[in-house]
Amino acid sequence: MVDKTPRSEDTRVKKEKPKFYKPPSALDAPPPPEGFRHRWIRSEFVGADDRKNVSGRLNNGYDLVRADEYPGWNTTVVEEGKYAGVIGVGGLLLARVPEELAVSRETYFEDETQGQMDAVDNDLMREQHPSMPISKERHSNVTFGGRNNE
Q1: Where are the domains of the chain?
Q2: Rounded to two decimals, what is the model's pTM?
């Protein structure tokens, strides 16, 4: 009996997809527990402690994440000082915030931003002259390549 398999399929080696190198992120963090988010907060700036930022975040409901809460996670830990045992990298500390609080905070700042945009629009429209109306265009177009018009 004749084998009807084409020779190209018979001798071809199955190719695997090439594996690409991806450098590790310096800010990899362990996954947060259900109902929480992890955020990096600044603990020092140009070598000086930033106590105001840390205390402000702690007062806003953030809790610092300790390395002993994630025993199987290989990460950098603050070795000494006030934040000893906390997961930290280069002047940043890992903090945990409840999901509801994070969503509430996002909503608050979205409303603040929208209020500011409305105020700018009102001021702008008040200054327009009937002979020279102002149009608001709040979108952008991104183009790649294109033709040279030489």
Answers
A1: 36-98
A2: 0.66
